[in-house]
Amino acid sequence: MYKISSTAKDREIEVLADKSPTWLAELRRDAWQRAETLEAPSRKDEYWRYTDLDLLNPESFQRLEHGGSTAPLKRLPQRASSALELSGTGSGGKIIHADGALFSAGLSEEAAAKGVIFTDLETAVTEHEELIRPRLGKLVGAADIFTARNLALHRGGAFLYVPPGVELSAPMQSLHWLGMQGTLIQPRTVVVVGRGAKVVFNDIYTSAPLARASLVNPVTELYAAEDSQVGWVTWQDWGEGVRHLSTVKATMAANARLNTMLVTLGGEFSRTWKECELAGEGAQSVMLGLYFAHRKQHFEHWTVQDHLAPHTRSDLLYKGALDDQARTVYYGTIKVRPDANNTDAYQANRNLALSGSARANTNPQLEIENNDVRCSHGATVGRVDEEHLYYLMSRGIGRADARKLLIFGFFNEVLGRAQWSGMHELLSESILRKLAAEK
Amino acid sequence: MSKPILVLENLHAAVEGTEILRGVNLELPPGEVHALMGPNGSGKSTLANVLMGHPAYEVTAGRILFKGEDVTELEADRRSRLGMFLAFQYPVEVPGVSMLNFLRQSLNARRDQDLKPREFRTLVDGKLKLLGMDKAFARRNLNEGFSGGEKKRNEVLQLALLEPELAILDETDSGLDIDALRIVSESVNSMRGPGIGFLVITHYMRILDYLEPDVVHIMLGGRIVKSGGPELAGELEAKGYDSVRKQYGEPAPQEEATAP
Ligand SMILES: Nc1ncnc2c1ncn2[C@@H]1O[C@H](COP(=O)(O)OP(=O)(O)O)[C@@H](O)[C@H]1O
Ligand SMILES: [Mg+2]
User: Could you tell me the residue range of the domain that residue B226 belongs to?
Assistant: First the structure.
């Protein structure tokens, strides 16, 4: 499957390599070669056994030779601008891509004055080589055919650099809009947070509904230096017809704090691989996840909490609701390496099945190579509690409204721990829209 | 005499095929307080939940008339909007659902109008004060992490807010210390009036010192075996449930299974 290497495809890598600085051209060509030699994944592979790989065949989608839409956007659509409100605290900078091409870039005066760099990736690779070269492709390389293809052919994406000691109150926001049908978009984003710096980063994916599927294969690499504090929100609310296959990896140095929140709502297929490496002593991460799948949506969330250093702590909670014939998969691994003494690692995945034909699969894994750990993991798939429903109804609340209250209640455990005030409203809107959708 | 708030006619109910209520008859005129007493397991909470429309209980015979309307087949939310209220013996914890959100929705449902946020807050704060409860109470999640006493007071708070015409209190007194019991009783007493009837279920006598029931019913084996004036409660206190049991016997389930 996934036959490639037609001359047209070879030309694509050449076009991109030609436009890149030499170091990147080399990286691209190596990755391309690797992509060609790598075996295509199959359902026999543990990591792909839930996935309909036909949906992800890169050859079924068009590439945009020059990046950019045939009908360029004039104004940012409402759905995109409202997603930018998710932090509820303004914006420190925005990099917006439409159909894989840069649409607009802006940085607040405050952030610019503090030496923050926030640009599209193409600008960064020429203007900030010293910062990006040691990092691009180092966390997410060419391990499988999708990440290898992203490394070779990436186009679009953002670069954020927060210098040591700089604290930013408003979030730095990268948004990807998609209007084109039948295309393949492969952005790559690199975030570098300096020692003792503090920042919130939003990674937003949204679009109108598409009649013919497009595939988005984004990669994000995040570096949190010693004592840094990073908030990181990923908001995936694609319109119907989008397939999302994302790989993100963060590495944390000593005493870094990373708070992440991943929200998956849109698209017909969504698979995210999120890996957090606690590489320095005393690093602490919180990984929150929220998803709501309906109709025939298929969502997969793969997570890795990788403890490499002593005295590290990770706490993961993913909660999802699923309705109609939706299918969700959670597959999470806690790794505790031999050197990671005194580790705390927690992982929980809770699912709320709203219909009898929805299916949730949950799979917690432990790979523990050290005895000095406190570790817990739990996974549940439940239904709306009839006693809860009765209690609310006995106070006059109709069945449908009572159910809604309980669904929001289910999510509130996660939302209550996330400090992003605008998210509540955005999420309510989206969930209500889905509950009201025709079956 | 005005029309009764509640009439139960030969009410039979079963859970998972086991009959628990075996022919309950009762008439509760407006303005009255009726006490329902009986040993543990006699079916008091079952009756309360059957009245409120709990989906797990099936009414196998008889009917429930609320203000003359047959509500036997109605869902719980309809009954509530009509003016029935049950303060639960064991209120459930509903994680993540905020008290304010919940109270606002139930009030709006009961009144069939959307209260303005200001009006709503004033109303809630007023009732909280009346019940000697802290304002912070309303900022918590519905019964989540509440102590036993807090849960009971939360039931009374909802009772006070929703202003029903029939209030069923299922052992609201148990789990309350003496001060809380006094506050709760006082607020119940302040709600008394010609427009509301109370069915006060209790295992103990002490709440009846405050509430002064008009009628006392004694339930045994899923039936009301004896009704009388307040003196009946005193009698029970003196002699205990065993004497009632001896007098009326626990009807064996088989005997009753073939009833109407
Ligand atoms: N949901 C239920 N499922 C099974 N048995 C029940 C249920 N509810 C009540 N019962 C049974 O019915 C009987 C009466 O219980 P209950 O109404 O709680 O009594 P009381 O409130 O008077 O203590 C008990 O034997 C109890 O076990
Ligand atoms: Mg009881």
Answer: 6-93+163-248
